[in-house]
Specification:
two-stranded antiparallel sheet; 38% helix; 5 strands; alpha/beta; Rossmann fold; 6 helices
């Protein structure tokens, strides 16, 4: 994590410490674990379901670099060569929703941008391609929930 990322993650603590959670989940990748720690959750339950998207041959490349050779590339439409397909990303997002739904009460999850966008889309039962329309910054809060209208995106990309 960058120093700026750590500062933003630590700022989450002020908002999250006012809430009670019945389960805390995190990706096993260090950035997510460190974010959870800085936000006040030093012992999250690690689950590989929350790991970042597998970019295969594009691992470590920026979107800008990928677009130099494939100007029309879009993760949620095309997937990544040697990595996850959009259908696999969506299925894993659905797996996390199943895991979280088994908890009676509130859940907080620490994961990664592209994957969390897929979770939001899967929660609302939309086509995975819609995830490309969601912008998600580092160390922000988002909320999905059930209400009288069904599954809704109640808050998105809210800074600490």
């Amino acid at each position: 994590m960058t120093p700026d990322g750590e500062k933003k993650a630590a700022a989450l603590r002020g908002r999250l410490e006012k809430m009670n959670f019945d389960a805390v989940f995190s990706s096993p990748l260090q950035r997510a674990i460190r974010t959870a720690e800085l936000a006040g959750f030093p012992d999250p339950q690690l689950t590989p379901v929350l790991r970042e998207v597998d970019y295969g041959e594009y691992e470590g490349m920026t979107t800008k670099a990928i677009h130099e050779s494939r100007p029309d590339w879009e993760l949620y439409r095309d997937g990544s060569p040697g990595g996850e397909t959009p259908a696999q990303i969506y299925a894993r997002a659905t797996d996390f929703i199943t895991l979280a739904s088994a908890v009676k009460g509130r859940v907080v999850a620490f994961s990664h941008g592209h994957f969390l966008r897929a979770v939001a889309i899967a929660w609302m039962r939309l086509d995975i391609k819609a995830a490309s329309a969601l912008h998600l910054d580092v160390a922000t809060l988002s909320l999905v929930r059930d209400d009288e209208r069904g599954r809704v995106l109640a808050m998105w990309n809210s800074p600490p």
